[in-house]
Write a structure and sequence with these properties.
176 residues; two-stranded antiparallel sheet; globular; mainly alpha; 63% helix; 10 helices; 6% strand
Length: 176
Amino acid sequence: MKKSNSSICLEASLQAYFFDELRRINQKRQEPLPDLSIYYSSLVMDRFSLSNQYFEKQEDGRVREKTLGIKLLKSEGLSESEKRRELRDIGDTALFLCGYFSNSINEKIIDINYYCEIGRTAYRKLDSYQESFYDYKGFFQHFSKQFHELTNMMSLLQSDCNLNEEQFLLFAKDVS
C-alpha cells in the first residue's frame, strides 16, 4: 500500500489555523511583525472565508466584487460609525485581495499597487476614527505600514495551502 503525502490538519477554528500558519511564516522573517498584526490578519482571512463577506450585492440582486476606490471616496460622506465600519471593510478587503488573491489581480487592468494603496489609505483613515485595537493605540496606522509584508505572508500561505482561487471560492460558497 502506497503512503499518501497529504495530512489532516486539526484546528479549533479556521481563524486559529490562519493565525498558526501566518505566525509560522512570520517567525521565519528577519524582522518578525508583532503577533497582534498576525492575529488581526488571521481574523480578516477567517472573515473572508465566507464569500458573502468578499462580494457585495447590487440593487438588482447580482453579486460582484467590491469597488474599493469608489467605496473609499463615498466613505467621506458617512457618519462616524458608518465610516469606521466602511473603512475597515475596505482595508480588510484590500488586504485579503492583495494577499490571498494576489495572482488574480495580475489578470486585471488595475495593478496590485492600486489595491495596496487603497487598503493602506483606508487603514490610515480608520486610525483616526478607531484609536485602538485591543488597547493598542495607533494600531491601524501601524498596520497600514505593514500592509505589504502582511500581503506577502498571506500570498505565501495561499501557495502553501496549494489552493487556487476557484477552489477557495467553491469551498467558501459551500460554507455560506
